[in-house]
Specification:
The chain has four helices and 16 strands. By secondary structure, the protein is of the alpha+beta class. A hairpin with a 6-residue loop joins strand 1 and strand 2. The chain is rod-shaped.
Length: 297
């Protein structure tokens, strides 16, 4: 059977000679098929590149939105921390005012008990009564404690066993590196959780979170105007109004408040004026627990 083909006539422009070229049908169909396949391949490559470019654009957009949201979250977190510090400061001031003047907020109830009055006090009312009674007790203990000289009221014990890393007086700010900051105590480095002990007999006048950078803070009044401060604690084991003795465990070393590493901030004050604690620590001892006997008798 004779094969079918296309005839292409080519004429020479100068000599005028004609030349016929026989092209089989299968060759023409193969060229068309390859051309169509090439078009599909080119379309696929273009589509793949367009899809990849669209994904990259979406990724960049999502990353930008994530950075914006992270920035907003950090700003909100900063505002919340400031509000918490302000709230802690206000609560501390309110507690000190209540302790100083013995104030008690009167509980207001409805004029007609049969309408909506309750014979059982609410939890908030009970808490207010407890705080008031504790404040009155604290004032009584403070008055009793301030009378006379206490033999063990001089801070002559290291509050924690560690190494001095921050001295009393002017220094550079450990966070910003700027100079001109007055350090009202000393810093004693120790691992988180190390026991902090009272350096003398006294009365706990504060045991709570402080809003001024001390973190968890304990203040002990030793009478005759002498008081000690213990800052940046991780845990507090005493309450305001509690009497403590020299060597009692009152808290644990931490990194709360404005710190760069775990340590204890220790202050000694005379009538509210910070003194150099090293004057008391120079000849002070380190507390050592007495060994426990293995027998109960």
């Amino acid at each position: 059977m004779k094969q079918e083909y296309f005839v292409v006539v080519v004429a020479h422009s100068l000599r005028g000679r004609l030349r016929r070229i026989h092209i089989p049908h299968q060759a023409v169909y193969a060229v068309l098929a390859f051309a169509l396949l090439g078009c599909f391949s080119a379309f696929g490559v273009v589509a793949s590149y367009a899809r990849m470019a669209w994904k990259v654009a979406n990724y960049n957009s999502l990353r930008h939105e994530a950075e914006v949201l992270r920035s907003k979250y950090q700003n909100l977190e900063r505002v919340v921390n400031q509000k918490n510090d302000q709230l802690a400061s206000l609560e501390l001031n309110a507690t000190e005012v209540a302790i100083a003047y013995g104030l008690k907020q009167q509980l207001e109830g409805p004029s007609d008990l049969s309408a909506e009055g309750k014979l059982v006090p609410t939890f908030q009312e009970s808490l207010e009564d407890y705080n008031y009674l504790r404040s009155v007790n604290l004032l009584a203990l403070a008055s009793h404690h301030s009378r006379g000289f206490q033999p063990n009221a001089i801070p002559n014990l290291w509050p924690v066993e560690g190494m001095l890393t921050g001295s009393y007086g002017n220094r550079s700010d450990p966070l910003t590196g700027e100079g001109g900051e007055f350090h009202s105590g000393v810093d004693i480095s120790a691992p988180i959780g190390t026991a902090v002990r009272a350096t003398a007999d006294g009365l706990v006048v504060m045991a709570a979170m402080d809003g001024g950078g001390y973190g968890r803070l304990i203040r002990i009044d030793h009478g005759n105007g002498i008081s000690t401060w213990y800052g940046h604690l991780s845990r507090i084991f005493v309450n305001a109004g509690q009497e403590v003795h020299r060597g009692d465990k009152i808290g644990a070393v931490g990194a709360t408040g404005r710190v760069t590493a775990p340590h204890l901030h220790y202050e000694v004050r005379n009538h509210g004026t910070p003194m150099n604690p090293y004057r008391y620590l120079a000849n002070a001892n380190v507390y050592h627990e007495a060994p426990r006997s293995e027998f109960p008798f």
